Amino acid sequence: MIGMVIGLLGHRRQVLTLCVMSALSAVLQGAALALGIPVLRESLRHDPGAAARWLLPLLAVVLFYWLTYAVAENVGSSMQPPLRGRLFDLLSDKILQLPLGWFDGTRPGQLTTLISRAGTTTQLAVSAVLTMSGALLPPLAVVVGLAVFAWPIALTVAIVAPLILLVQIATTAPTARSEAKEAMAEAEAGSRIIEFTHAQQPLRVSARADKGLRSVEKALRERHSAARQHILRTALLLKVSGLAVYLGYLAVLVVTVLLSAHSNMDAPTLVAAMAFAIWTLRPISDLPGAVLVWQSTRRSLQSIKDVLDEPTLPEPTVDDAPLPGVPLVQLSDVTFTYDGGTAAVRQVELTVPTNSMTALVGRSGSGKSTLLHLISRFWDVTDGRVLIEGVDVRNMSTATLMSKISIVPQDVYLFDDTIEANIRVGRPDASAAEFAAACRRAQVDAIVDELPDGWQTRVGAGGTLLSGGERQRVAIARALLKDAPLVLLDEAASALDAHNDAAITAALGQLRQHRTVIVVAHRLETLTDADQIVVLDDGLVAETGTPADLLARDGLFAALWHERERARGWRLTS
Ligand code: ADP
Ligand code: MG
């Protein structure tokens, strides 16, 4: 664990000083106690002079103990802030570098737990060193002292103590397992709660709110039972190890009785040795606690290390220069496989001319979102190339790539801030006129007119005050304000109300006049407006062409089109 702390967080000198000082103070504490043996013995022999002679070294040892312990504690507490600071720096730097695709599934929950515990992890690491040396070393020093005065009793302790320790280590292993299970259940419950609160809108629209709630309840039940199992197991095992300590006491008493019968040790020696031997066994019962702290700190450090060791996407030091006159986006022979799965998209060829609108269509799971994510480099392609302005996205820095792309995701996340601030994220230095124009085009004015505080209305965490369609309009305004040539838009798959539907159509129409747009299309209006339709089927490009061409071909696109028409309950007249 100490190696891990130094490896992760540096501060080698302070960490080593802490270890040396706490070990030294623990040994001195033991030595002070060991010096109590002759003091007690001489007192029982009614020889205060001899007893007093031992008091002077005892006093010196106590002073040194106090001094080293104070230094250890001081080093321990003064290195807290820098260690914590370093840990947060490392984690936040890493979060900024991790591929965007990393943040899915249970990751946000794990990360939340990890970061909220990071502060206590460094504290635990320090207290683990102190408690471990405090539990282990003083008894050792006392046993050495006992050996001088009554070696058979020292020998008994030397045999019994490791046995007790073995029992205790054997009993802590299962608690480590149940603790790990509890931690996993807790992360899972955290993720389900985050998902449930974020996905209220889609869940309700699809009338599945109770299903979402059920998965939260299930996760909470599992967490509860994991916690219960951990507590019960820990309590039981602590009782077993407590019993081992009492059996150790008994062994010391038996040996003392035997010595009184069969040796020529006097009563004061026997009494003093027995008293301190019994004392020695007591701190051993602190060891399981210390071992638990030690192990759980190690696990926390390991999970931090795991996140820090996650591979990041390599970045070039210099960007390749964009090529003039090439189509804005080109995908050539692109194949992508999520970890261990089958390919989500295969051998995709796609050319998106500058200032055009391309609609991606296909059944759920056909790879539409994956394709958008590859263009914005959430992940790197497994095979093939993604080119923007003729440059492979892998040969662009993240900053360059992000300056060329605006993303309007299916489920828009807004910051808990005002509407205005949320749109200005697109380009903080935009003028008032530019801001107003973007909002008008994206039809955000209409939303704002209805809100109590106008532009200064706060949208709530994640933007929950607005409906899904309204959030998408805010995100489109953000994209219009940002001067990026390419907009990637993942349309809401669920039906929008008529008002939002019309507003989104209008906003999209504005967007395509000024930008190159690639949209995962679910609405008939978007499909009729597109310059080019790309139909995906199980990761492969099945059809490409204009809406009219593809309808005439009467293939997969025509089938999807008619499905959607029926769902809408009306027909377009040709
Ligand atoms: P669409 O957007 O067309 O519904 P996706 O691009 O989301 O489809 O998914 C394509 C395929 O990749 C699906 O089989 C889906 O299960 C899989 N997939 C999507 N995201 C992930 C992920 N993060 N990890 C593993 N598999 C994924
Ligand atoms: Mg999708």
TrEMBL record:
<dbReference type="GO" id="GO:0005886">
    <property type="term" value="C:plasma membrane"/>
</dbReference>
<dbReference type="InterPro" id="IPR027417">
    <property type="entry name" value="P-loop_NTPase"/>
</dbReference>
<dbReference type="InterPro" id="IPR036640">
    <property type="entry name" value="ABC1_TM_sf"/>
</dbReference>
<dbReference type="GO" id="GO:0016887">
    <property type="term" value="F:ATP hydrolysis activity"/>
</dbReference>
<keyword id="KW-0812">Transmembrane</keyword>
<keyword id="KW-1133">Transmembrane helix</keyword>
<keyword id="KW-0067">ATP-binding</keyword>
<comment type="similarity">
    <text>Belongs to the ABC transporter superfamily. Siderophore-Fe(3+) uptake transporter (SIUT) (TC 3.A.1.21) family.</text>
</comment>
<dbReference type="Pfam" id="PF00664">
    <property type="entry name" value="ABC_membrane"/>
</dbReference>
<dbReference type="InterPro" id="IPR039421">
    <property type="entry name" value="Type_1_exporter"/>
</dbReference>
<keyword id="KW-0997">Cell inner membrane</keyword>
<dbReference type="InterPro" id="IPR017871">
    <property type="entry name" value="ABC_transporter-like_CS"/>
</dbReference>
<keyword id="KW-1003">Cell membrane</keyword>
<dbReference type="InterPro" id="IPR011527">
    <property type="entry name" value="ABC1_TM_dom"/>
</dbReference>
<keyword id="KW-0547">Nucleotide-binding</keyword>
<feature type="domain" description="ABC transporter">
    <location>
        <begin position="329"/>
        <end position="563"/>
    </location>
</feature>
<keyword id="KW-0813">Transport</keyword>
<dbReference type="InterPro" id="IPR003439">
    <property type="entry name" value="ABC_transporter-like_ATP-bd"/>
</dbReference>
<feature type="domain" description="ABC transmembrane type-1">
    <location>
        <begin position="16"/>
        <end position="296"/>
    </location>
</feature>
<feature type="transmembrane region" description="Helical">
    <location>
        <begin position="52"/>
        <end position="72"/>
    </location>
</feature>
<dbReference type="GO" id="GO:0034040">
    <property type="term" value="F:ATPase-coupled lipid transmembrane transporter activity"/>
</dbReference>
<dbReference type="GO" id="GO:0005524">
    <property type="term" value="F:ATP binding"/>
</dbReference>
<dbReference type="Pfam" id="PF00005">
    <property type="entry name" value="ABC_tran"/>
</dbReference>
<protein>
    <submittedName>
        <fullName>ATP-binding cassette subfamily B protein</fullName>
    </submittedName>
</protein>
<dbReference type="InterPro" id="IPR003593">
    <property type="entry name" value="AAA+_ATPase"/>
</dbReference>
<feature type="transmembrane region" description="Helical">
    <location>
        <begin position="236"/>
        <end position="259"/>
    </location>
</feature>
<keyword id="KW-0472">Membrane</keyword>
<dbReference type="GO" id="GO:0140359">
    <property type="term" value="F:ABC-type transporter activity"/>
</dbReference>
<feature type="transmembrane region" description="Helical">
    <location>
        <begin position="149"/>
        <end position="171"/>
    </location>
</feature>
